[in-house]
Here is the input.
Amino acid sequence: KCPTGDVTGEELAACTVWEGVIYSADEKGSVGLLPAEGADAPKSLVFPDLGPSLQMSAAYGPGGFSKMPWDVFALKGCQE
Here is the structure.
């Protein structure tokens, strides 16, 4: 339940459940930074510690998430 409009850094921090670097991973398991614009999309995206961060947030539990995602998401297609 984040505020909308003009918010302070403190208000934004209160509703931020994860911050970090998003990595790419290929089919061989090699991990790197996201590719440059115009390059092929990676096979997977890695959000380090996303699951544990969500589980420790107010978004988990009654009225929120009941299952936690893993930190790796496989891309199935692109939308343009």
Observations:
- Residues 24 and 42 are 6 Å apart (CA to CA).
- The two ends are 29 Å apart (CA to CA).
- The longest helix spans residues 9-15.
- The chain has two helices and four strands.
